[in-house]
Amino acid sequence: MSMATSQGTNKKSRIAILGTGVMGTAITQIYQKAGYKPVVWNRTLSKTKPLTDAGSDLATTVSEAITAGDLIISAVASYENLTEMLKNVQISGQGKILVNICSGTPEQARAFGTFIASKNITYLDAAAMSGVKRVGDPEGLFLYSGDYSNFMKAEPLLKILGKAKYLGSDYGLTPLYDTALFTMAWGGLMGFYHASALIASENIDVNDFAQIASGHTPFLNSLFKEHARAIGEGKYPNEDGNVEVHAAAMQYVVDVSRDKGLKADFPLLISGILNKSKEAGLGGNGIASVIEMIKNHG
Amino acid sequence: MSMATSQGTNKKSRIAILGTGVMGTAITQIYQKAGYKPVVWNRTLSKTKPLTDAGSDLATTVSEAITAGDLIISAVASYENLTEMLKNVQISGQGKILVNICSGTPEQARAFGTFIASKNITYLDAAAMSGVKRVGDPEGLFLYSGDYSNFMKAEPLLKILGKAKYLGSDYGLTPLYDTALFTMAWGGLMGFYHASALIASENIDVNDFAQIASGHTPFLNSLFKEHARAIGEGKYPNEDGNVEVHAAAMQYVVDVSRDKGLKADFPLLISGILNKSKEAGLGGNGIASVIEMIKNHG
């Protein structure tokens, strides 16, 4: 496969896109912009029209798309859909790499990897972590797992879509990290929304708060790294304050929230977990020890 | 007051520290390290010994400390404690600035501001946002509110403690931001802990995950800024996915967490709020619209 040369991207590489929903469309447009002529397929062929009008080629069947592509990017909804699409397709996959961006479980990714190996197509499991809007943005994050040498082959083309982070050979790593990062991001957002409600209750501009909150995430990053080490070692130093101190502070957030007429579900959840940790005898430990309450030992 | 010159910090400024618990001790040590000779006071005088042994001067009364100090930093536990300490003190506060680092409500900060004005002492309300460990670290964040010209006078000395962020003249801004940033940070941590539990359930190193999670916070920052704009305008564009799509994805996190034997309280809380938003007819809106569920209109 001549997907890329050591000099960079070989513009003769052909990119096929399976599924032209919002993600597939964004991906196709980025490759068009970068000077490629993608081949697009969609279950409802008419939905590819904006892309073919803009210069992409139409594949009328999945097998036509795969035959045309060196790099095949699937942006259909699920592993089931993709398996169904590929099941009865007769193709020579030799030298082709299929990159599949859909959400699912590690088990589904691994099972799909086994299935696709039977088609003689090289596989990379992928996830777009920064949403459709940031496709093509160098700061947008994409995750990949599968054979490293195949990732290296595809990387020059994948970097056109955004930051390309390789996780390891196990296909299951991408869905696992996808779920974990989604959960982490929602924690940050939920905290930000509750904080914004507190700020807004005093008629302060939430845009000003967002600036300061953004300036505070490097602190959060340093806690992630320190607390990961603590979690890995199963020992929780309390230099960022112990569970007991944080439980009291979070109870205070609950009280202030209620005073302001806000629903306190979010700080209540955290104070509940901190209180459970206290009851479990972890009150003097660092706050990362609350992971023991999530791990459900009891 | 000759606290600082336009050339920088005037080493002749005298710093008084009220309360030498962990925070007051860390602050005193940083000023000692920077070449100052602080004056320290603590309710239990013997607790100042490590600091006076290291070269700080002892004030045996609060009034002695305030008389000695140009900049007085209080690190006692509460507004009540500080008010009690100062109530019967006869001092000439002219030209002195009191910086008070304690947690409390905006109302307490404002009431304390009124009280301290009667003592003729200029006041800045303060909060240490990055914990004791990062006192003296240029990346450690301190918040201040009060009269801007007084903040400017004190700033060269305050910058020795860390990043000095001025919020505005209303004393209540510091406690409000303190509570909001604490809530935001706990959201990020809770998300990170749950995510780490998912990662650990597949025997993947959480330190590797922390690296990738840290690399993902610039994305979170851009969401903070965009969603703050949406919250400010009360219009929620769904370009990061709508409430309905996120509700389904969060239900999936709940399911995976349970499959892995984890307690799903955290993803359940978020999926509950997303589902309430859906029921309230906000399913097609952007996810920042969940703030309407916190604002308790129903």
What is this structure's SSE topology?
2 copies of one chain form a homodimer.
Chain A: E1 4-5, E2 8-9, E3 15-18, H1 22-33, E4 39-41, H2 49-53, E5 57-58, H3 62-68, E6 71-74, H4 79-87, E7 97-101, H5 106-117, E8 122-128, E9 141-146, H6 148-158, E10 163-168, H7 173-201, H8 206-233, H9 243-259, H10 265-282, H11 291-294
Parallel strand pairs in A: 3-4, 3-6, 4-5, 6-7, 7-8, 9-10
Antiparallel strand pairs in A: 1-2, 8-9
Helix pairs in contact in A: 7-8, 9-10
Textual characterization of the structure:
The structure is a homodimer of 298-residue chains. Helices cover 51% and strands 14% of the residues of chain A. The N and C termini of chain A lie far apart (53 Å). In chain A, the strands form two sheets. The first copy, chain A, has an eight-stranded mixed sheet, with helices on both faces. A two-stranded antiparallel sheet of chain A has the order 1-2. The relative contact order of chain A is 0.08. The first copy, chain A, is elongated. Chain A is of the alpha/beta class. In chain A, helix 6 links the parallel strand 9 and strand 10. The first copy, chain A, has eleven helices and ten strands. At the A-B interface, helix 7, helix 8, helix 9, helix 10 and helix 11 of A face strand 10, helix 7, helix 8, helix 9 and helix 10 of B.
Structural class label of chain A? alpha/beta
Average pLDDT over all residues of chain A: 93
Give me the strand/helix succession of chain A: EEEHEHEHEHEHEEHEHHHHH
Multimeric state of these chains? homodimer
Name the biggest interface: A-B, 95 and 96 residues
| Beta-strand fraction estimate of chain A | 5-15%
Tally of helical runs of chain A: 11
